Batch of 3 targets.
Target 1
Amino acid sequence: QNLIKKCDKAPSMLHFTSKISHNINAEHCCTIVIHNAIFLNSMAKYGGSIYSYNIGTVILNMSQLVGNRAVKHGGGIFDRKSKHLYIFNSNFTHNVEIKDGYGALSFTKSDTIFMYQCNVFENSGATWGGGVFVFKTNKSVIINCYFVRNKGRFGAAVYINRCPLSLIKNTVFNRNKATEDGGAFCFILSSNIIALKLQLIQNTALR
């Protein structure tokens, strides 16, 4: 069952807390909070379990996205033009982007993306970023995360394109596999890349 929320007229806050939720589609809202939710085996054209557009702040905490699929862009999550995204203490496993786009977690044209203490295991994207895809975002931060056995064509675990500031710290990349470039991560047209205390273990790129 799809849960669709559009808040075009006035600023609003949406708060989701659920053991099982499927296909949240939210647009033009002030704040979305998703806490202690499980998204399991859902499918959509964009964002297998969560699609958000033009949100002020998106917060995802203590949640699990497992086995979700998108035809294009974001097997688990696809966000466009939201200002701030905060993802804490969450697990992303076996999410798949099927056709020709961005990986399990896809974020485009945001101001800030912050991921903390997340596990990103065995996800895949058809082209860019099997685990996480970030495009035209002012600041992307990944701290204390694990990326394990993700697959993609470019940037098997993390793909970041046109971001002025990127920080990856205290993060493990283990056995991720790119069919072309960037077994662990791939940065394109990005400046001010800060990588601190990373563990890179048996990641592979075939080109």
Target 2
Amino acid sequence: LFVFLFLAQSLFAQTDSTEALFKNAKYSYTQFDIGYCGIATNDNLLNGITFQFFGIVLNNRFSIALGMDQTWNKGVTILPYPPPLQRYNLTYLNLEYLVKPQKIFNISFPMKICAANAGYSQGVGGLTEKFFVFAPGMNIFLNLFKGMSLGAGGNYRFASGKFYWGDETDYSNYSVYAFLRFKCDTRAMQKKAMEQQTQYWQNMNPPQQ
């Protein structure tokens, strides 16, 4: 296996003319989101939170991130049986194309690939469906500060799986979002910390005359 990987790497290294999406990818900054999430079903709009807890931006235009959406219905519905969905949760990989994020107003096109579960009770037990979701969407941003943006957007969920309860429109439907996006240039922070540390040691050990 290692011999094969070595030969493959040697072969690919010689084909500099090959075009690839991440061939010249360079780290730009990290980002995370937190805010409101609304997931529509056939009968309800389930309200909850969205939390994209880790994202890496490459070349200032492409983001790869992990996150989750968790929504629920505050009321308890028993009839009809089975009742309307009471909760809908997504754990996702988000591939997002950023269009000029440095502009005060900018947009992006996210694609969420999700492992999902939805149920008819507030707790973990009860009737629960597990399935996959693909959710292309669009966001619009207002840059409030250099490191913080206000975002809003939506997507359409295409659910894939075998559903034992309810109608497919309970699972494939639209979602809406309103959130804050925080950006952090970890490399710049690390560089600044190293410079401060170097300056500290230089002050503690001045050159002798």
Target 3
Amino acid sequence: LTIQVNAPATLSANGGGAGIYVEKGNATITGSSKLTIISKPSGDYSATAISLQKANLTISDANISTTGAIFCDGDLKIINSQIETNDRLLGSGSSLTIENSSVSSSTIINWKSLTLTDCYIKTPQGGYYDTSAKELKDASSYTANIVEICPMGDANDNDIVDVADIVEMVNAKNGNPSNKFVLKNADLDGDGKITFRTQPSHENSAI
């Protein structure tokens, strides 16, 4: 099953039903137009906007906003996409892969593994995925209740890659340590810009 979003669209479901429900097999959601999915809870039934039962889901080059959780009983891959949900990114013991994408959710939980490629955990700062507990935690090892995953580059959303982005990426690469790489160490000229210098040549220099 492939869902191609060629124009802005909204799907709504009541009674705890899912806006998109797939049982068994593989599914793909793609298309740069925004897809909004609204699922309303009912009684004991929580809201699940996207539900995959015994199925794998690939979200590629997509822009999705949900009210209600995103649940996948199989593997979930998010590639070159923007995903925003007010609820959980919920697995069932399978693998979650996020590549060069922006993802925001209340938490990420119950995945066997979380693999990030060309992106990093922005919030919570120092956050990490605990594979034994199967949940994303903050630096103090508490369950994260606000999660932001961002692509590498343009960390401050000003549409350019600047020194602040380099600082953000270096700290993310180092696991957001308590002793952080700071702006003044990256911006030697103090002008907020990235300056490339050539190293002086030592060839033929006097010893």
